[in-house]
């Protein structure tokens, strides 16, 4: 009995080749910076060489006969995210400076960057060149909105396959086609992303001129890349806490907008702001942040050990809650020092996430909203068994299949999160390191849900280098799995995917 | 008037028989036996054949017809028949449809399909049911501007808080206008300081919600409140439209439908209705859901037998008012004799609507009040007409005609008329005019 492979893998590999072959374009930016500051261009030249070679090799197996169907899209999404991170790791290894020179650490840093997690293994930021630090920011910006939306925007010949890719990447029921052609839709969304990033550069730079010389053009660009992308890397060891309070405030709206549905932003820009303002998911997302920020602010006021003053307390509460809920992962202060209640609020915030169709990660507001509404519906039908009650979000009914998928997704996410936390504790004990339970839970959530910093040693001013190498390897895989919303990877592990 | 009726079913026959005495009526039916039979029942000319073809329509002399009424049981047939008629002459065409989709298309662009007036059977029936449920105290209710506006006449109760107030005090609704007040049979056009007394009859014009709200004020005893329990049994098109119209006037009805897919569809399309998927003949279920405590039960299932069964069941359980949809006109009296409060037959409703329309002037929708002392008219304003482009106060000051503008609809939305409102071409104006002034007004429009 011979098993034939029923996946058009050549199409997936070919597409991966297309994406890899395009990587020299983003790599050119740190290369130019290296040349400008007189740093070694070698790390980036090496990465460019590898991406071109791999790209050419992958493209050569391309079979134009094969179509990009749902299975091919799963395979392509999984491969592309993994291999782009792998190529992204090359500059760190070739540069060979600090903790990140080790291949596993380099892969951790690149995967953390691409998945817009923002967890770092760097210990001493001052060791690294400006070009290497900028490369971290650039990877995050690429991963922010999803590489495949970018690919769809650029590779217009993908046609319908592009819609398939975007759906697979974001695991949404259907991509809101704004235009008849999916590539145009992708271009519009990327246009908004690009515009917002540009706006952030201008705002940060001008504020830097006005109040804080440390926010020069380099830092303005670096932080613009990672705030709209809700990614969280910063070339500063103190993250956004290194800047003037006014700049910290200015970062907040960019994180909030980055986690707002880009489709709704598009409508808002085009004269239909009500579609955004009346959206229930938007209300839920803003409401969740407002509630958590209020609780944290009250907690900080009452805590005699924190003395930020009135403005500082509100700013730190708002900034860090927004940073966590939008899954950015910046910090304005070392919140590891806060009292447990405030820290646990941030921990809770990790699971919420922003809106579907944005740069956010984590579980996402829409899923929680649907789950809550369908649970409320179940309470009603418990009393009236015959009642037929569709779940509505913003007046539109949600398909029952979609509700089932959302429950499954929630359960799967929480189980994986929990298993990862256990792995972290067990592996630490094996390696004679000590990680307490809350730190393990925080680290598991922050990596799998792609947020960034956690608590304890892995806090915003700490480093993930303290975890054993094996733990970091597991985290690399789970950042990847979490960012592409679990299913595209898990489905590859089933036999039916390949053979039936 | 030369009238051609296409389709000799219950609706067509009923219309033909009302018109036969005063007009020259030709009835076309596809079934030769039916055509033959009708020849002896009514004093009309009958033609057997397909009423959508130009041959048959030519034979029926559609070319010189003043009115063509297409009322077969098939929507598409009726639309095509009207379209064909428009190619032969310019008689006024009326089509009967069941689907509200066609009505929506037609509302968007009047004259679509070659239809000059469209009557939607199921919607018309649902509107009747909702009027019976919502405004039991009204002496007269007439829809205008495709249902966007209602005119209603009420007698003011002793208990009503409105009794003893002035018009200004009583008018608490944004889009409601008092257009007339009858006392001892004499009509006055009310002003803000006109007092309202118990026993008066008030005529108001406004959106269905505001009329409903006013009904609660004027007759609090008989008008159902929001908290009242209304149960619609059967998710047929009539059941669906009834629930939808009830939602529009702020009720939250319950709807019982047996078919799972249909129930789901209904629940998705009726956000403020509790849809239950169950067989309504199950008494145990009815008791568990406290249907016996309902204030009104509407039965709108597809079979008369089931409607009868459930109506009787509901009455026995102690429901206050039971309204039944009865498909066969012969059963209407049977239902009412058994003790069902109101039996409504969709075909009768349609035939009545079409007949009413043919009686009245073709271009305007009108209602006649209190022994013809006043009329409520709906005028569509054209570009060059004398009412356009000026504020209402100016028009009132200039003319001797005695009238009140009750409501304006512009692009399918209600505009509440005020002194400074400027009328525009394309507006539909609903106004009350004293009978003596009707010709003065219509000559201006």
From TrEMBL, chain A:
Topology in the lipid bilayer: Multi-pass membrane protein
Record key words, sorted: Cell inner membrane, Cell membrane, Ion transport, Membrane, Potassium, Potassium transport, Transmembrane, Transmembrane helix, Transport
Pfam family, one: TrkH
Transmembrane segments: 12-36, 42-61, 73-94, 138-156, 188-209, 246-270, 282-302, 345-370, 406-426, 475-494
GO biological process: potassium ion transport
Protein localization: Cell inner membrane
CC annotations in GO: plasma membrane
Entry similarity comment: Belongs to the TrkH potassium transport family.
UniProt-listed PANTHER family: TRK SYSTEM POTASSIUM UPTAKE PROTEIN TRKG-RELATED
Name listed for the protein in its UniProt record: TrkH family potassium uptake protein
Protein's organism: Halorubrum yunnanense
UniProtKB/TrEMBL annotation, chain B:
This protein's UniProt keywords: Ion transport, NAD, Potassium, Potassium transport, Transport
Domain of life: Archaea
Ranges of residues in domain RCK C-terminal: 139-220, 364-445
The RCK N-terminal domain, residue ranges: 1-119, 227-344
Pfam families associated with the record: TrkA_C, TrkA_N
InterPro entries according to UniProt: K_uptake_TrkA, NAD(P)-bd_dom_sf, RCK_C, RCK_C_sf, RCK_N, Trk_Ktr_HKT_K-transport
GO terms under biological process: potassium ion transport
Role this protein plays: Part of a potassium transport system.
Protein name per UniProt: Trk system potassium transporter TrkA
Organism: Halorubrum yunnanense
Gene name of the encoded protein: trkA
């Amino acid at each position: 009995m011979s098993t034939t492979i029923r996946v058009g893998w050549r199409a997936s590999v070919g597409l991966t080749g297309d994406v890899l072959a395009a990587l020299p374009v983003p790599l050119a930016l740190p290369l130019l910076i290296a040349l400008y500051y007189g740093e070694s261009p070698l790390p980036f030249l090496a990465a460019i060489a590898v991406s071109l070679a791999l790209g050419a090799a992958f493209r050569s197996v391309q079979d134009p006969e094969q179509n990009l169907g749902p299975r091919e899209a799963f395979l392509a999404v999984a491969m592309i995210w993994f291999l782009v991170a792998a190529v992204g790791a090359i500059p760190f290894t070739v540069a060979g400076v600090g903790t990140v020179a080790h291949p596993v650490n380099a892969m951790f840093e690149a995967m953390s960057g691409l998945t817009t997690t923002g967890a770092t293994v760097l210990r001493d930021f001052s060791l690294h060149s400006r070009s290497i630090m900028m490369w971290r920011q650039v990877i995050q910006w690429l991963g922010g909105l999803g590489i495949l939306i970018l690919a769809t925007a650029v590779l217009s010949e993908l046609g319908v396959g592009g819609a398939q890719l975007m759906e697979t990447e974001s695991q949404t029921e259907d991509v809101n086609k704004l235009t008849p052609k999916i590539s145009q839709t992708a271009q519009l969304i990327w246009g908004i992303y690009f515009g917002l990033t540009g706006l952030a550069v201008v705002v940060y730079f001008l504020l830097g001129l006005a109040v804080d010389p440390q926010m020069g053009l380099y830092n303005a660009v670096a932080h613009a890349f990672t705030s709209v992308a809700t990614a969280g890397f910063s070339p500063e060891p103190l993250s956004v806490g290194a800047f003037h309070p006014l700049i910290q405030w200015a970062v907040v709206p960019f994180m909030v907008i980055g986690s707002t549905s880009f489709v709704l932003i598009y409508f808002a820009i085009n004269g239909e702001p009500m579609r955004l303002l009346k959206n229930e998911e938007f209300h839920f997302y803003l409401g969740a942040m407002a509630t958590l920020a209020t609780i944290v602010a009250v907690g900080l006021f009452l805590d005699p050990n924190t003395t930020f003053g009135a403005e500082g307390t509100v700013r730190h509460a708002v900034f860090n809650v927004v940073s966590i809920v939008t899954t950015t992962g910046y910090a304005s202060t070392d919140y590891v020092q806060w009292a447990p209640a405030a820290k646990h609020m941030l921990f809770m915030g990790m699971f919420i996430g922003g809106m579907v169709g944005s740069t956010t990660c984590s579980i996402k507001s829409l899923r929680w909203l649907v789950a809550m509404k369908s649970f409320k519906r179940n309470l009603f039908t418990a009393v009236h068994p015959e009642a037929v009650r569709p779940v509505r979000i913003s007046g539109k009914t949600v398909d029952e299949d979609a509700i089932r998928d959302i429950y499954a997704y929630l359960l799967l996410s929480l189980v994986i999160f929990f298993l990862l936390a256990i792995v972290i504790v067990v592996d630490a004990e094996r390696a004679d390191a000590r990680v307490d339970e809350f730190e393990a839970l925080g680290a598991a959530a922050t990596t799998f849900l792609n947020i960034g910093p956690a608590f304890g040693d892995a806090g915003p001013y700490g480093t993930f280098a303290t975890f054993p190498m094996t733990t970091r390897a597991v985290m690399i895989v789970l950042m990847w799995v979490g960012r592409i919303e679990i299913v595209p990877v898990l489905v590859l592990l089933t036999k039916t995917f390949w053979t039936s | 008037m030369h009238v051609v009726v296409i389709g000799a079913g219950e609706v067509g026959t009923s219309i033909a028989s009302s018109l036969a005495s005063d007009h020259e009526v030709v009835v076309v039916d596809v079934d030769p036996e039916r055509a033959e039979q009708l020849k002896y029942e009514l004093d009309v000319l009958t033609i057997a054949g397909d009423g959508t073809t130009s041959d048959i329509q030519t034979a029926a002399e559609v070319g010189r017809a003043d009115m063509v009424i297409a009322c077969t049981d098939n929507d598409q047939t009726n639309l095509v028949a009207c379209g064909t008629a428009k190619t032969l002459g310019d008689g006024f065409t009326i089509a009967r449809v069941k689907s509200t989709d066609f009505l929506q298309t037609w509302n968007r662009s009047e004259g679509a399909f070659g239809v000059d007036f469209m009557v939607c059977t199921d919607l018309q029936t649902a509107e009747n049911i909702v009027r019976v449920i919502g405004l039991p105290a009204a002496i007269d209710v007439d829809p205008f501007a495709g249902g966007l506006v209602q005119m209603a006449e009420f007698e003011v109760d002793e208990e009503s808080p409105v009794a003893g107030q002035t018009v200004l005090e009583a008018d608490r609704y944004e889009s409601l206008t008092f257009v007339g007040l009858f006392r001892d049979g004499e009509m006055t056009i009310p002003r803000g300081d006109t007092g309202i007394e118990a026993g008066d009859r008030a005529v108001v014009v406004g959106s269905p919600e505001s009329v409903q709200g006013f009904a609660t004020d004027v007759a609090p005893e008989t008008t159902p409140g929001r908290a009242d329990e209304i149960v619609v049994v059967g998710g047929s098109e009539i059941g669906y439209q009834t629930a939808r119209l009830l939602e529009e006037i702020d009720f939250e009805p319950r709807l019982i439908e047996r078919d799972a897919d249909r129930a789901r569809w209904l629940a998705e399309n009726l956000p403020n209705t509790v849809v239950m998927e169950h067989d309504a003949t199950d008494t145990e279920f009815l008791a568990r859901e406290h249907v016996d405590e309902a204030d009104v039960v509407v039965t709108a299932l597809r079979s008369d037998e089931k409607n009868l069964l459930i109506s009787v069941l509901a009455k026995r359980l102690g429901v206050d008012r039971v309204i039944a949809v009865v498909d066969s006109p012969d059963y209407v009296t049977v239902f009412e004799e058994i003790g069902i409060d109101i039996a409504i037959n969709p075909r009768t409703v349609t035939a009545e609507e079409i007949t009413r329309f043919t009686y009245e002037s073709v271009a305007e929708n009108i209602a006649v009040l209190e022994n013809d002392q006043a009329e409520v008219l709906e005028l569509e304003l054209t570009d060059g007409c004398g009412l356009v482009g000026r504020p209402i106060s100016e028009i009132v000051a200039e003319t001797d005609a005695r009238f009140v503008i009750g409501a304006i609809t512009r692009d399918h939305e209600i505009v509440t008329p005020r002194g400074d409102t400027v009328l525009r071409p394309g507006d539909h104006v609903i106004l009350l005019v004293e009978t003596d002034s009707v010709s003065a007004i219509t000559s201006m429009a």
